[in-house]
Q: What sequence folds into this?
């Protein structure tokens, strides 16, 4: 059958290739019919009954193909060389910053509370006075307790005395009375403190003079065991007029001001000081004797808050001359 007559020039795809077909032959066809309107070609082959389906052929034996040999493991590639560390150039040192302004001077802190003693000393008692125109003096201990301080005052009229072993001479005031005589006012302390309830006497040896002398031992409590004597001051007055008291200026709080007075009295007396400021002088002991012509006299003033005691006078009666030695005892 000529396709070109039916369809015109046609292109047929055979095995994936384009073939220009002009004619096609149907082998064994009984008849052919081409519908020009539908462009449908009907091909009729023989009309015999189709034969029975042939038996399924037996499955051929499985082929015994050999397993292929295992491929060799590929060699490990060589480790790559380490990369070169990149150079890290150091940055240039920065320029120094500007100097800060000078800070303001801090405010000075307030003065702290003194770390000194907390207890003020006190006068406790005086022992029996020893009096003699010539010869030695043997004053006795007064009331005392363990730790107390013993101090001795000697008032002499021309006489002189040595320091006993175990005692310290702190001061002696010497001056004329206007009649050719010498008045002396001695201040001693015992080195060892009281062991408690001590009794007996102490001998102060006369080293010259035969006019007169009085000696008395005083007991003080709550006194520092070292560096306890300070602020020494002294005054003198010839004649019977009032004596101006010395000024005692301690270095800290809790001090006891002590004033030992001596006079050529022939029985005259000394009064307690009046008119002072910064403290209050109080009379503790006095002994005046017409035989020895001298007087021992002691006054004390507590200076618990520190500060000086100054001013004031001591009235004198039937006195030719008088002097005073004052000092401060340090507390504990």
A:
């Amino acid at each position: 059958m000529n396709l070109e007559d039916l369809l015109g020039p046609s292109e047929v795809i055979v095995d994936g290739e384009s073939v220009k077909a002009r004619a096609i032959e149907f082998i064994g066809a009984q008849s052919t019919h081409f519908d020009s309107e539908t462009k449908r070609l009907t091909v009729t082959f023989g009309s015999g009954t189709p034969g029975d389906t042939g038996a399924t052929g037996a499955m051929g034996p499985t082929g015994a193909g050999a397993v292929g040999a295992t491929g060799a493991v590929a060699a490990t590639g060589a480790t790559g060389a380490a990369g070169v560390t990149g150079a890290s150039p150091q940055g240039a040192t920065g320029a120094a910053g500007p100097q800060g302004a000078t800070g303001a001077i801090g405010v000075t802190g307030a003065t702290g509370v003194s770390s000194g003693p907390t207890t003020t000393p006190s006068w406790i008692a005086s022992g029996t006075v020893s009096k003699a125109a010539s010869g030695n003096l043997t004053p006795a201990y007064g009331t005392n307790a363990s730790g107390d301080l013993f101090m001795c005052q000697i008032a002499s009229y021309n006489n002189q005395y040595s320091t006993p072993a175990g005692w310290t001479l702190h001061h002696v005031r010497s001056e004329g009375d206007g009649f050719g005589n010498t008045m002396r006012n001695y201040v001693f302390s015992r080195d060892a403190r009281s062991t408690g309830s001590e009794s007996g006497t102490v001998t102060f040896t006369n080293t010259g003079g035969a006019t007169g002398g009085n000696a008395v031992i005083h007991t003080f409590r709550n006194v520092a065991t070292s560096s306890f004597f300070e602020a020494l001051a002294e005054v003198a007055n010839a004649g019977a007029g009032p004596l101006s008291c010395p000024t005692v200026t301690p270095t800290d709080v809790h001090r006891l001001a002590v004033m030992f007075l001596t006079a050529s009295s022939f029985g005259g007396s000394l009064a307690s000081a009046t008119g002072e400021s910064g403290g209050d002088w109080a009379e503790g002991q006095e002994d005046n004797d017409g035989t020895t012509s001298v007087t021992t006299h002691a006054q004390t003033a507590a200076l618990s808050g520190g500060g000086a005691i100054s001013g004031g006078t001591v009235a004198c009666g039937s006195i030719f001359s008088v002097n005073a030695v004052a000092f401060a005892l340090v507390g504990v």
Q: What stands out?
A: Residues 266 and 290 are 4 Å apart (CA to CA). The radius of gyration is 69 Å.
